[in-house]
Specification:
about 425 residues, alpha+beta, five-stranded antiparallel sheet
Length: about 425
C-alpha cells in the first residue's frame, strides 16, 4: 500500500496507552524517523559562516584522555597556549588507566575546532571530543550540581531534566518494573551500572532509568553524580510544588489549575468514567480498556508533568500532560465533555507550553485526529509556527517554540509556581 504524507507549514498560525497508542501512532513514529533521517548534520546548519570579528573569542568545551604521569597535563596546557587558547576551567575524571580532562576553553574567533584537536593530540591527548560552549558553561561544576539538586528536591518531575543538564545531550528513558514485581530486575546492582555510553540506575519507584549518550562515553565521575541525584530523589519521595491558580472562564465560572501526580489517580479515573466514548477515543486514539494502567503512567512525574483543572468542589474536569519523549516533548489534553468548548483546553495547553519553554524544549507536538477540531483550534490559538503531518488519519501538529512564546511559566500564572 502506498501511503501519502502531507506536510503544511503555517508561519503565522507518554506515555500513551500501550496497545491502542502503538497501533494509532505507528505512522507518527515512521514520520519522525524520516524527519530525523533528513535532518542536516549538526555541524552543518546550511548557513554561511559568520565573518570573523577582530579580537572576538569563541568558547569551547573539550574532553581528552591523558596518561597518568607527571608532566602530561603541563604538555597539553603548553600546546593550547601555543594556539592562544585560554583554559577557563578544568575538571578531572580519573579512570583505571589515565584521566579524562574536561576543559572550558576560550580561543581566538576563527580558530577551528580541528586546530585545537590537533594541538591537543600532538601533546599526548587521546579520544579528544570538542564542541561549542556558551555563557551557561561558565558556571562552575559544583554550583551547577547544587542548583540541579535544589530543583530536584522541589519537584519529582525535575529528575529527568536535571540528569540531562548534568550529563549533556543524552536520551533518558524510564522503564517500569515488570508487572507484579514493583522493583528493578535483580540483574541490576543496587548502585546501578555503567557501560561505556549507557548508564542504568534503579528508579526510586521501581524499574530502571536508562541514560544513553552515544557520542561520548560516560566517566565513573559522571556516573557517581547521576546516581547521587537519583538517590536524593528516592530519599525525598513523591513531591510537587504546592502552587495553584484560580482563573475565571469567559462564562464567569472559576476553576483551579494545579500540578497533579499519581496521588490524583482516583479523581482522574472518576473523570474518565464521566467522559463519553468519543472523547476518550479522540484522546487515546482508540478504545480505552485499562484506564488505571494508562493513568498511572501518564500521571507519573518520571515521564513528564501533569496539570489538573478542578472545580470549586474539588472535582477534576481536565488533565493536561507534558510528556518527555526522548529529545522531543508531547502535549496531550483530556477535558470532560460538560467542560469542553469553554476555554479549559486552551488554558491548559498554554500553560503546558510555558512549562515546556521553562524546561528548555525547542518544540512540542500533539498526536491527534483530523476530526479533533478542539485540539487543532487550541494548537492554532497558541500563535506559534505550526507544522502539520497527516498520515492514515493520524494528525501530528508540532509547535516551534521561540521568542514569540512566553519565556516564563510564571507569566502565564503557571500552576507549578510554589
Amino acid at each position: 500500500m502506498t501511503r501519502e504524507v502531507t506536510q503544511v507549514t503555517h508561519a503565522d498560525d507518554n506515555c500513551r496507552p500501550a496497545t491502542s497508542w502503538q497501533r494509532a501512532t505507528a505512522a507518527f513514529h515512521a514520520w519522525r524517523t524520516r524527519r530525523q533521517e533528513h535532518a542536516p548534520p549538526t555541524s552543518d546548519t546550511g548557513s554561511p559562516a559568520p565573518e570573523p570579528v577582530p579580537g572576538a573569542n569563541t568558547l569551547w568545551r573539550m574532553r581528552t584522555t591523558v596518561r597518568e604521569e607527571p608532566g602530561s597535563l603541563a604538555a597539553l596546557c603548553s600546546a593550547l597556549a601555543g594556539r592562544r587558547v585560554d583554559i577557563l576551567s578544568l575538571q578531572t575524571h580519573p579512570l583505571a588507566e589515565g584521566t579524562v580532562d574536561e576543559f572550558l576553553l576560550r580561543g581566538p574567533d576563527g580558530l577551528p575546532a580541528s586546530a585545537i584537536t590537533t594541538a591537543v593530540e600532538s601533546a599526548g591527548g587521546a579520544d579528544t571530543w570538542i564542541e561549542r560552549a556558551d555563557a551557561h558553561d561558565l558556571v562552575d561544576a559544583p554550583t551547577r550540581v547544587l542548583g540541579l539538586a535544589a530543583r530536584t528536591a522541589l519537584d519529582s518531575a525535575e529528575l529527568p531534566l536535571a540528569l540531562r543538564q548534568l550529563l549533556g545531550r543524552c536520551t533518558i528513558r524510564s522503564l517500569p518494573a515488570p508487572a507484579g514485581e514493583g522493583r528493578a530486575p535483580e540483574s541490576l546492582a543496587v548502585e546501578g551500572a555503567l557501560d561505556d555510553t549507557v548508564l542504568r540506575l534503579r528508579a526510586p519507584e521501581g524499574g530502571v532509568i536508562i541514560v544513553e549518550r552515544p557520542y561520548l562515553p560516560f566517566t565513573p565521575t559522571e556516573f557517581a553524580r547521576a546516581r547521587a541525584l537519583v538517590e536524593l530523589d528516592a530519599r525525598l519521595g513523591p513531591r510537587l510544588p504546592h502552587g495553584r491558580d484560580v482563573f475565571t472562564l469567559a462564562e464567569g465560572s472559576d476553576i483551579t489549575v494545579r500540578r497533579a501526580d499519581t496521588r490524583d489517580l482516583e479523581a482522574a479515573r472518576a473523570m474518565h468514567e464521566r467522559c463519553s466514548p468519543r472523547t476518550l477515543k479522540l484522546r487515546y486514539h482508540g478504545p480505552v480498556g485499562d484506564a488505571d494502567r494508562y493513568l498511572t503512567h501518564l500521571l507519573s512525574p518520571r515521564y513528564g508533568r501533569t496539570l489538573a483543572v478542578q472545580t470549586a468542589s474539588g472535582r477534576i474536569v481536565g488533565l493536561g500532560h507534558l510528556l518527555w519523549d526522548g529529545d522531543e516533548t508531547e502535549v496531550a489534553l483530556l477535558v470532560e465533555d460538560a467542560w469542553q468548548r469553554r476555554g479549559v483546553g486552551a488554558e491548559l495547553l498554554s500553560r503546558l507550553v510555558a512549562l515546556a519553554v521553562e524546561a528548555g524544549c525547542s518544540s512540542v507536538y500533539a498526536v491527534t485526529q483530523a476530526s479533533n477540531t478542539g485540539m487543532v483550534a487550541a494548537m492554532r490559538g497558541l500563535g506559534l509556527p505550526l507544522d502539520y503531518q497527516v498520515e492514515e488519519g493520524t494528525l501530528v501538529i508540532t509547535a516551534r517554540l521561540g521568542e514569540a512564546v512566553v519565556t516564563s511559566a510564571e507569566e502565564l500564572g503557571s500552576a507549578s509556581a510554589s
